[in-house]
Amino acid sequence: MRHPDAHAVVFRKFGCDLRTSVFNQVLWAIDALGVSGYFKATVSPMEITYLPTGQKIIFAGLDDPRKKKSQKMPFGYFRFAWFEELEQYDGMEEIRSVVQSYMRGGNAFSYFYSYNPPQTRSNWVNAEAERDVPNRNVHTTTYLTAPREWLGK
Protein backbone atom coordinates (compact mmCIF):
# COMPACT_ATOMS: atom_id res chain seq x y z
CA MET A 1 0.00 0.00 0.00
CA ARG A 2 3.02 2.27 0.55
CA HIS A 3 4.49 1.55 -2.90
CA PRO A 4 1.92 2.53 -5.57
CA ASP A 5 3.92 1.05 -8.45
CA ALA A 6 4.58 -2.29 -6.74
CA HIS A 7 2.72 -5.57 -7.17
CA ALA A 8 3.12 -8.87 -5.33
CA VAL A 9 3.11 -12.49 -6.42
CA VAL A 10 2.49 -15.46 -4.15
CA PHE A 11 3.69 -18.91 -5.18
CA ARG A 12 2.95 -22.46 -4.11
CA LYS A 13 4.65 -25.39 -5.75
CA PHE A 14 1.27 -26.96 -6.48
CA GLY A 15 -1.41 -24.66 -7.87
CA CYS A 16 -4.22 -26.78 -6.44
CA ASP A 17 -3.16 -25.60 -2.95
CA LEU A 18 -3.38 -21.85 -3.62
CA ARG A 19 -7.00 -21.09 -2.76
CA THR A 20 -7.22 -22.99 0.51
CA SER A 21 -3.87 -21.75 1.80
CA VAL A 22 -2.11 -18.54 0.73
CA PHE A 23 -5.11 -16.88 -0.93
CA ASN A 24 -7.24 -17.32 2.19
CA GLN A 25 -4.28 -16.36 4.38
CA VAL A 26 -3.84 -13.03 2.57
CA LEU A 27 -7.58 -12.34 2.79
CA TRP A 28 -7.42 -13.10 6.52
CA ALA A 29 -4.46 -10.71 6.95
CA ILE A 30 -6.23 -7.91 5.04
CA ASP A 31 -9.24 -8.33 7.32
CA ALA A 32 -7.06 -8.51 10.47
CA LEU A 33 -5.44 -5.21 9.44
CA GLY A 34 -8.87 -3.62 9.08
CA VAL A 35 -8.41 -2.64 5.43
CA SER A 36 -10.85 -5.02 3.69
CA GLY A 37 -12.80 -2.12 2.15
CA TYR A 38 -9.78 -1.19 0.06
CA PHE A 39 -9.43 -4.59 -1.63
CA LYS A 40 -11.35 -6.72 -4.12
CA ALA A 41 -10.62 -10.43 -4.45
CA THR A 42 -11.40 -12.73 -7.37
CA VAL A 43 -10.67 -16.42 -7.83
CA SER A 44 -10.62 -16.44 -11.63
CA PRO A 45 -8.12 -15.04 -12.12
CA MET A 46 -6.92 -15.57 -8.56
CA GLU A 47 -5.85 -12.11 -7.50
CA ILE A 48 -6.48 -9.40 -4.97
CA THR A 49 -6.64 -5.80 -6.18
CA TYR A 50 -5.90 -2.74 -4.07
CA LEU A 51 -8.75 -0.51 -5.29
CA PRO A 52 -7.19 2.97 -4.78
CA THR A 53 -4.30 2.25 -7.18
CA GLY A 54 -5.09 -0.96 -9.07
CA GLN A 55 -2.08 -2.78 -7.64
CA LYS A 56 -2.42 -6.53 -7.52
CA ILE A 57 -1.42 -9.53 -5.49
CA ILE A 58 -1.48 -12.47 -7.87
CA PHE A 59 -1.27 -16.16 -6.99
CA ALA A 60 0.54 -18.75 -9.08
CA GLY A 61 1.25 -22.45 -8.89
CA LEU A 62 4.67 -23.62 -10.01
CA ASP A 63 3.73 -27.15 -11.01
CA ASP A 64 5.77 -26.40 -14.15
CA PRO A 65 8.04 -23.37 -13.53
CA ARG A 66 9.00 -23.23 -17.25
CA LYS A 67 5.49 -21.92 -17.96
CA LYS A 68 6.05 -18.88 -15.73
CA LYS A 69 8.13 -16.78 -18.09
CA SER A 70 7.84 -13.12 -19.07
CA GLN A 71 5.19 -12.14 -16.52
CA LYS A 72 4.37 -8.43 -16.69
CA MET A 73 1.82 -6.13 -15.10
CA PRO A 74 0.09 -3.26 -16.97
CA PHE A 75 1.98 -0.74 -14.80
CA GLY A 76 4.70 -0.90 -12.20
CA TYR A 77 6.59 -4.06 -11.39
CA PHE A 78 6.62 -7.08 -9.10
CA ARG A 79 8.39 -5.90 -5.98
CA PHE A 80 7.31 -8.64 -3.57
CA ALA A 81 7.38 -12.42 -3.98
CA TRP A 82 6.32 -14.98 -1.39
CA PHE A 83 7.23 -18.64 -1.82
CA GLU A 84 5.07 -20.67 0.58
CA GLU A 85 6.07 -24.19 1.69
CA LEU A 86 9.57 -23.71 0.33
CA GLU A 87 10.59 -27.29 1.10
CA GLN A 88 8.21 -28.50 -1.66
CA TYR A 89 10.33 -26.87 -4.35
CA ASP A 90 13.22 -28.64 -6.07
CA GLY A 91 15.88 -26.22 -4.83
CA MET A 92 17.02 -22.61 -5.05
CA GLU A 93 17.78 -22.94 -8.76
CA GLU A 94 14.07 -23.41 -9.39
CA ILE A 95 13.32 -20.34 -7.25
CA ARG A 96 16.01 -18.24 -8.99
CA SER A 97 14.59 -19.07 -12.41
CA VAL A 98 11.13 -17.85 -11.39
CA VAL A 99 12.54 -14.75 -9.67
CA GLN A 100 14.43 -13.81 -12.83
CA SER A 101 11.19 -13.98 -14.84
CA TYR A 102 9.06 -11.96 -12.43
CA MET A 103 11.32 -9.55 -10.61
CA ARG A 104 12.52 -6.89 -13.03
CA GLY A 105 11.84 -3.30 -13.85
CA GLY A 106 12.20 -1.86 -10.36
CA ASN A 107 14.93 -0.80 -7.97
CA ALA A 108 13.93 -2.74 -4.84
CA PHE A 109 12.72 -6.31 -4.38
CA SER A 110 11.74 -8.38 -1.37
CA TYR A 111 11.42 -12.16 -1.25
CA PHE A 112 9.70 -14.12 1.47
CA TYR A 113 10.18 -17.84 1.96
CA SER A 114 8.03 -19.68 4.48
CA TYR A 115 8.05 -23.35 5.42
CA ASN A 116 8.04 -25.88 8.18
CA PRO A 117 11.66 -27.05 8.49
CA PRO A 118 12.20 -30.61 7.26
CA GLN A 119 13.44 -33.01 9.95
CA THR A 120 16.59 -33.84 8.01
CA ARG A 121 19.18 -31.19 8.82
CA SER A 122 20.89 -31.77 5.46
CA ASN A 123 17.71 -30.98 3.48
CA TRP A 124 18.38 -28.23 0.94
CA VAL A 125 15.95 -25.83 2.68
CA ASN A 126 17.66 -26.14 6.05
CA ALA A 127 21.08 -25.72 4.44
CA GLU A 128 19.86 -22.65 2.51
CA ALA A 129 18.52 -21.01 5.68
CA GLU A 130 21.93 -21.39 7.33
CA ARG A 131 23.82 -19.77 4.43
CA ASP A 132 25.10 -16.29 5.20
CA VAL A 133 23.52 -14.11 2.50
CA PRO A 134 23.77 -10.29 2.56
CA ASN A 135 20.49 -8.53 3.40
CA ARG A 136 18.81 -11.78 4.43
CA ASN A 137 16.80 -11.97 7.62
CA VAL A 138 15.92 -15.44 8.89
CA HIS A 139 13.02 -15.36 11.33
CA THR A 140 11.89 -18.39 13.26
CA THR A 141 8.44 -18.63 14.75
CA THR A 142 6.26 -21.38 16.16
CA TYR A 143 2.73 -21.71 17.43
CA LEU A 144 4.16 -20.79 20.84
CA THR A 145 5.14 -17.30 19.63
CA ALA A 146 1.99 -16.56 17.58
CA PRO A 147 -0.62 -14.26 19.14
CA ARG A 148 -3.15 -16.36 21.09
CA GLU A 149 -6.10 -14.80 19.20
CA TRP A 150 -4.74 -16.20 15.92
CA LEU A 151 -4.82 -19.76 17.18
CA GLY A 152 -7.66 -19.89 19.69
CA LYS A 153 -7.64 -22.19 22.69
Description:
The protein has about 150 residues and is of the alpha/beta class. Helices cover about 25% and strands about 25% of the residues. The chain is built from four helices and six strands. It has helices at about 20-30, 90-100, 125-130, 150, and strands spanning about 5-10, 40-45, 45-50, 55-60, 75-85, 110-115. Strands 2-3-4-1-5-6 form a six-stranded mixed sheet, with helices on both faces. It is globular and about 45 Å long. The termini are far apart. The mean pLDDT is about 90.
Number of helices: 4
Structural class: alpha/beta
Outline the low-pLDDT stretches.
none
The separation of the N and C termini measures 33 Å
Sheet of most strands: 6 strands, mixed
User: How much helix, percentage-wise, in residues?
Assistant: 10-25%
Give the overall average pLDDT: 90
Side-by-side strand order of the widest sheet:
2-3-4-1-5-6
- Radius of gyration from CA coordinates: 16 Å
Count of β-strands: 6
| Beta strand % | 15-25%
**Helix and strand succession?**
EHEEEEHEHH
Q: How would you sum up the global shape?
A: globular
Keywords for this structure?
single chain; 153 residues; alpha/beta; six-stranded mixed β-sheet; 4 helices; 24% helix; globular
How would you briefly describe this protein structure?
The protein is α/β, with parallel strands linked by helices. The chain has helices spanning 19-32, 92-102, 124-130, 148-151, and strands at 6-12, 39-43, 46-50, 55-61, 77-84, 110-114. The termini are far apart.
